[in-house]
Write a structure and sequence with these properties.
Structural class: mainly beta
Strand content: 35-45%
Strand order of the largest sheet: 11-13-16-15-32-33
Helix content: under 10%
CATH class of the largest domain: Mainly Beta
CATH topology of the largest domain: L,D-transpeptidase catalytic domain-like
Oligomer: single chain
Number of domains: 2
Shape: elongated
Number of helices: 4
Length: 440
């Protein structure tokens, strides 16, 4: 039995955080403070000799800052670049009342670039120093970034400090259609308490927002992993003339591994808990014409009871765990216990006995994998959280950068997929079953 319902996303939304304070740059020198003032090294013209020495130093070592001093409509997506000529950059300080600014120095020491985009509608003062040939030069640039005529924001599905299943992707909803997906993808950072390999996937037909993006690990998350997400979206140009205007952060955790494999051909489901087969229960799947669709799904939400309605029925159904938007559940079906294990009689759901349904309900959280096999009906992409319909190679093709992501306790980096270590995960405990041929 199923309930036909409009799509909805459970859980709390992420927080939109504004930045505070100023920040500093360079691994070799960390400096930063809030408020105004240039704070640069000053060359005092005490005498002609000192003035000539200063002029000689400036000629010996060149230093430029982009955006230049006095700019009033700088493109925030371009960030800050400090370039030394005939020398190396030795110090960069960025002062702003907006989000902190960090950056990296090139291997030859000649170019420093901010790591993320700058905030929109914000003022910055950059003071930089370069040295070379026994001379030193310091210069300052004060500028302001543009105020865009159009903006976008993003929301994250995950709730703060909540626990999710080992299959749960990071799910982002964007308020505007994103056309420069690569620029936005490069602004998304994932930090994990344990090393994890994953990738981003873009979806313009998700039905939840103009554009959705999902981060899925290559294989299931390790149980007990803490996941932190930071979207450095302020100042990123997601479409022509459309800029992000906020930073988005969220932290959640991955709970115990709970994995269900439902075989509607053999009328049974296996329930694996923390890597062990804990239960093997009889089920009844969808009857002919209402077949339960094949595919590797995730639990979305649960309710006890759920009012399910359809042609000829309206019933409150206990212990219901949902896995498709169209209304398929694992649930208590006390009325069909005699058929469970022998035949399929439901309207598309997976029918369980009252005892079995209560056990599964009490264990389940959003993001627990459910794989349906043995059905003549294919699953449908985006009917539920269907990210695990795709193999790892298929999933990578949904990335705008074409790169994988290596996440770790110190943040994430983009890497060439060919440089990744071999995948040794096995199904169904560590990753989704491969080659479910009916899923489409």
């Amino acid at each position: 039995m199923r309930r036909i319902a409009t799509r909805g996303a459970p859980g709390a939304r992420g927080r939109l955080l504004g930045g505070a304070g100023a920040a500093a740059a360079l691994a070799l020198v960390v400096a930063g403070c809030s408020g105004g003032g240039h704070g640069g090294t000053k060359v005092a013209p005490a005498a002609n000799v000192k003035a000539k020495a200063s002029a000689s130093a400036a000629a010996a070592v060149g230093l430029t800052i982009t955006p230049g001093n006095g700019a009033t409509g700088a493109d925030p997506s371009g960030g800050i670049t400090v370039t030394a000529v005939r020398g190396t950059v030795t110090n960069v300080t960025v002062r702003t009342p907006g989000d902190p600014v960090s950056g990296t120095l090139s291997q030859d020491g000649r170019v420093w670039r901010s790591r993320w985009a700058l905030d929109v509608s914000q003022s910055y003062t950059v003071t930089a120093t370069a040295s070379g040939g026994g001379s030193t030069v310091t210069t300052t640039s004060t500028f302001r970034t543009l105020t865009p005529s159009q903006t976008f924001h993003a929301q994250i599905l995950q709730g703060y400090d909540q626990a999710y299943g080992v299959g749960q992707p990071i799910i982002l909803y964007f308020s505007q259609k994103i056309t420069d997906k690569a620029a936005v993808e490069r602004a998304l950072e994932v930090t994990t308490s344990r090393p994890v390999i994953g990738a981003w996937y873009w979806d313009d037909s998700c039905g939840m927002a103009p554009t959705c993006a999902y981060f899925r690990p290559r294989d299931y998350w390790p149980s007990g992993t803490t996941v932190s997400f930071t979207g450095h979206l302020n100042g990123v140009q997601g479409a022509p003339g459309v800029y992000g205007y906020h930073m988005l952060t969220q932290t959640f955790s991955i709970g115990p591994s709970l994995i269900a494999i439902g075989n509607v051909k053999t009328h049974s489901t296996q329930i694996y808990y923390n890597g062990q087969l804990r239960y093997d229960w009889p089920i009844s799947g969808g009857r002919p014409g209402d077949d339960t669709p094949d595919g590797s799904y995730l639990t979305i939400e649960k309710e006890n009871p759920v009012l399910m309605t359809g042609p000829g029925y309206s019933l409150e159904v206990p212990y219901s765990v949902r896995f498709t938007w169209s209304g398929d559940y694992y649930h208590d079906a006390y009325w069909s216990v005699g058929e469970q294990g022998f035949t399929n009689v439901s309207h598309g759901c997976v029918n369980l006995s009252p005892t079995d349904a209560a056990i599964y309900y009490n264990l389940a959280v959003p993001g627990d994998p459910i794989t349906i096999v043995g059905s003549p009906k294919p699953g449908t992409w985006d009917n539920g959280w269907t990210m695990w319909f795709l193999s790892w190679q298929q999933y990578l093709r949904g990335s705008a950068t074409g790169q994988a992501v290596e996440a770790a306790p110190d943040g994430s980096t983009f890497v060439d997929p060919s440089a990744l270590p071999p995948d040794t995960a096995t199904a169904p405990l560590q990753t989704a079953p491969a080659g479910n041929p009916n899923a489409s």
